[in-house]
Amino acid sequence: MRRAYVMHAKLGLQQMLAYRAGFFLGLLGNLFFLLSMFYLWRVLLKNPRFTHALGWDWSQMKAYLLIGFITGILVSTFTDYTMANRIRTGDVALDLARPIDYQKARFSETLGVALFEFCTAVSVCAIVVAVFGGMQPPTLQAGLLFTVSLLLVVPLKFGIVYMSGLVCFWTTNYLGVSWSRQAIVNIMSGALVPIVLFPVWLQGVANVLPFQAIVWTPARIYLGTIHGTEAVMWLAIEAAWGVGLWILARLMWKVAVRKLVIQGG
Amino acid sequence: MVVASRIGRPIVLYARCLAVQIKAVLEYQADFWILMMASVLMNLVGFVFLWTIFSKIPDVDGWTFWQVVVIYALVFVAEGVGSLFFEGTWNLAFLVNRGELDFMLLRPVSPISQVMNCAVGINGLGNLLLGGTLIGLSLSHLHIHWTLGRVALALLLLVSAIATKIGLNLATNASAFWIQSPFSGFAFSMHQLGDLARYPITIYASAVQALITVAVPFAFISFFPAAAVFSKNGWRLGGVELPLRWFGLATPLVAVYCCWMGVFLFRRGLRRYESAGN
């Protein structure tokens, strides 16, 4: 049984390599976004008010933006659009007929792709660091906790992306769902603005949602704004969200399959 | 008479095709609302972003909050018009890849106009409404001395900015004739390059500013027109002082150039179009 899932991970990776042009063009788009954020924050952080409110300076902000870039690339390709398409065309019926778990199979594919996404994102970061100058490496403890939180981003983001793909059981258009998700994740994860700059009520909202664990948690651990027990607590929250969304996705799937109408013969 | 019908007929046909497309979209009401929600969310997130930043500082590179909102909203309005009326441009890659462009070449109507209105992006309506609201809101906060000349200028620049975006969309999507892929990946990444023009471009390094001013003139969709209406001056690029306002006033020329480029590349590409198998 396990072999079937390893197979899916390989398949996912192969499929993405076959369509690598799409991936690299998408990467280019993310890079443009990173570029605009880099220049914008460089100007903003010349103002002491920002360094004060954030608790870090430009060299640390660079690390923050790069962490946002990496977690933005992770689980960004392939899974949801393929799922949405298969649901729309009715090909999902074939997936239902297979003797393996649908959600686990998609997760396996995601893992296969995530490996590639991660390696690419890190290479790009190395280039950016070379161009924009160095930044502080984290302490050993922070580095280890940061790695864990980066790994935990994968199941968490998978839950979000997977569920948004399932929405296609109710709608025929996926673009709007995907855009909405990206907009919400962008703002509530801290990818656009570090959450600490939000007004207090919005910080409260962000902290009870799962999205903050995508950028805000790993970035704060890396920068050392949270450490020790507090860091472990936020990691636990991140892991709990991963598990919670997994269960939620299962329930959503159960309801969705009952909704399924396959058009044509 | 002949002249009138030569100009009038394509417009009537265009409107009719678009009406059919809109009806088709409205068939799926959930889709309609989801696309509207998506565009509202994207606008809102952008606004919250700027608002959060400007709650800490009065200006970025001499641009105040409401002035930057205008730049930001202009991008949304231009994209909105592009989606609502010319969404088909983004389907070109698919049409070429599948050989479906053949059908359009057989009809006695310009293939460019057929491609451009073979789809409608209802999210454009949301962008247009919200972008328009944001511009209106900004202008009410900005205390600009509106003379008749300035109103005319603002309208001319707005139309030019939108035309620039549509021309660039067509030009970048025409890449589909050269790149064999069912998705317009290249055009989309260029579109994202255009996101750099959501902020005063003076924050960027000279090379980046030159890139979105000269190579792919996205800055003429938002930054330069806004600079002209707000009578901004003093633009230093690589140590040279440039008349920012005059760049803004050149927007109509850039619009003509971009549209011409779009049509030129489309026709060039069409010449090497070979249709797809069987």
Descriptive notes:
The complex is a heterodimer of chains A (265) and B (278). Chain A has 265 residues and is an all-alpha fold. Chain A has twelve helices and no strands. Chain A has helices spanning 2-18, 20-44, 48-54, 58-73, 79-89, 92-97, 102-132, 140-166, 175-188, 200-208, 212-223, 228-259. The two termini of chain A are 31 Å apart. In chain B, the strands form two sheets. A two-stranded antiparallel sheet of chain B has the order 1-2. A two-stranded antiparallel ribbon of chain B has the order 3-4. The relative contact order of chain B is 0.13. The interface between A and B is large, with 38 and 40 residues.
Count of extended strands of chain A = 0
3D shape of chain A: globular
Kindly give the count of domains of chain B: 1
Specify the number of helices of chain A. Answer: 12
| Poorly predicted spans of chain B | none
Shape of chain B: globular
Query: How big a fraction of the residues of chain A is strand?
Result: under 5%
What's the end-to-end separation of chain B, in Å?
43 Å
Could you spell the SSE succession of chain B in H and E letters? HHEEHHHHHHHHHEEHH
Mind describing the biggest β-sheet of chain B?
2 strands, antiparallel
Question: What integer is the average pLDDT of chain A?
Answer: 88
Class from helix and strand fractions of chain A: mainly alpha
Question: What is the element string of chain A, with H for helices and E for strands?
Answer: HHHHHHHHHHHH
* Helix vs. strand class of chain B: mainly alpha
Q: Order of strands side by side in the largest beta sheet of chain B?
A: 1-2
Mean pLDDT over all positions of chain B: 88
